[in-house]
Amino acid sequence: MQFLSTFFSDFWLYALISAVAAYLLSSINTSIIVTRIVKHEDIRNLGSGNPGFTNVLRCVGKVPAAITFIGDFLKGVISLIIPFILTINVQHPDIDLYRGLMMYIAGLCVVFGHMFPVYYGFKGGKGVVASASVMLLVDWRILVLELVIFAIMFALTKTISKCSLVCAVFIPVLTVFLRIMDAAGVLSFIAPTPNPSIAFICCIGFITLINAVAVIVKHKDNIKRILNGTEKKITDKK
C-alpha cells in the first residue's frame, strides 16, 4: 500500500520518537505516587492490588482518586501532543492522516505504558482512564459515545469493571464505523481527519483492536469475579 510505504519511509522516526516518549511518560503511575504521599503505602498492596483509579477510590479516598484520574488523563493528553509538535512544520498533502496514525500509535503506547510501566516492574493499571485520554485526542466523538455507554452501564450495574469491559469492546467498533462514515462524507464536517483512506481506517482499526484486547486481558480477574458473582460494586465498602 502506498499509504504505509510512505509512512514507513518518511515518518517512521517521528512515529518512533512519539511512541517511546508516550510509553516512558505513561509509565509514571499517578495512583502509586499519590497513595505513597497520602497513606505512605503501596496501592498495589491495598484492596484489589490494582494501581488505578477505582482501587484508589475504595482504599484511599475521593480526593486522591480524583488526583489519580487527572494525572492519568493528563499524561495521555501530553503524550499525544508530542507527534503533533514533531510534525507541525512538515509539509505533505496527507499530513493529517499520517499525523493521525502517529497519534494512534502513541496512544497505544500510552495504554501499554500505564499497564506495563518500566519504572514499577511492568506492573501497572488496567488502562481505562489512559484509553479515555487517548480517545479525546484522536477522535473526541469516540469519547463522547463511550461516556454515554459507560453511563448507561453504570446506571444498570454500578460496577466499574463491567462498564470498562463493555466500553473496551466498543472502541474498535466505533472507531471503524465513524471513520467509514467520514470516508463516505456523512460525518466529514466533524471528522478529526477528513477523507480517511481505507489503509488509514484499517491501520487504526487494528491499533484500537489491540488496545481493546489489552484492556480486556488486564481485566481477567474481574471477569472471573463477574462470572462467579463476587465482583464488587462501586457502592460496596472497602
Which terms would index this structure?
238 residues, mainly alpha, 11 helices
Structural class: mainly alpha
Q: Assign an overall shape.
A: globular
Mean pLDDT: 90
C-alpha Rg (nearest Å): 18 Å
Question: What is the tally of beta strands?
Answer: 0
Number of helices: 11
Helix content: over 70%
| Multimeric organization | single chain
Distance between the termini: 53 Å
Share of β-strand residues:
under 5%
Order of helices and strands: HHHHHHHHHHH
Residue ranges: pLDDT <50 for 5 or more in a row?
none
Largest sheet: none
Structure description:
- This protein has helices spanning 2-10, 12-26, 30-39, 53-59, 62-86, 95-115, 128-138, 140-157, 160-183, 198-218, 220-228.
- By secondary structure, it is mainly alpha-helical.
- It is globular.
- The model has no long low-confidence stretch (mean pLDDT 90).
Quick synopsis:
The protein has 238 residues and is mainly α. It has eleven helices and no strands.
Would you spell out the secondary-structure blueprint of this structure?
Layout: H1 2-10, H2 12-26, H3 30-39, H4 53-59, H5 62-86, H6 95-115, H7 128-138, H8 140-157, H9 160-183, H10 198-218, H11 220-228
